[in-house]
Specification:
- It is a single chain.
- The protein is mostly helical.
- Helix content is about 75%, strand content about 5%.
- The protein contains 6 helices and 3 strands, in the order H-H-H-E-H-H-E-E-H.
- Strands 1-3-2 form a 3-stranded antiparallel beta sheet.
- A hairpin with a 5-residue loop joins strand 2 and strand 3.
- The longest helix has about 60 residues.
- The radius of gyration is 35 Å and the shape is elongated.
- About 5% of the residues have low confidence.
Length: about 140
């Protein structure tokens, strides 16, 4: 019997070695490309988070200014301005108008009720002066 392993040409090992080197090089390039893509994605996410945090900080500062202005008016004219432009949140809107939230949003969609003012990312309110004007208009229609 003839041993096949002894009769192999020597360049078979060289071909396998060359193929293995080529495969390793392709894997290395692919890994480098994926790493570059992941780094770019990571940088995009960092930028996005910076923008979100900056927006959040601006909104927080604005809300703090509103809270300070509402709780500590400096003079009587400022107090009257605050009462006219006081912001009503949704839970205070129902007692003021007698309307359910779904009715309020339906009237907003049809243009019959004042639209809300955006206070933050997930917060809205209505200017008391707008709601008072709407109520006065409704009372004028009834009388």
């Amino acid at each position: 019997m003839v041993d096949i392993s002894e009769s192999k040409p020597m360049d078979w090992d060289a071909n396998n070695l060359a193929l293995e080197i080529e495969r390793t090089e392709l894997l290395r390039r692919h890994t480098q490309e994926r790493l570059k893509q992941l780094n770019e994605l990571s940088e995009m996410l960092r930028d996005h988070l910076r923008r979100i945090n900056r927006t959040r900080d601006v909104e927080r500062a604005r809300m703090q200014k509103l809270a300070v202005a509402e709780t500590s008016p400096r003079n009587a004219s400022n107090q009257s301005m605050l009462s006219a432009d006081h912001i009503l949140r949704r839970k205070h809107l129902k007692p003021a108008t007698g309307l359910s939230p779904s009715t309020i949003y339906r009237l907003i969609a049809s243009g019959e009720f004042p639209p809300p003012v955006k206070l933050g990312i997930k917060a809205v309110g209505w200017l008391k002066s707008d709601v008072d004007a709407w109520l006065a208009g409704r009372q004028a229609l009834v009388s």
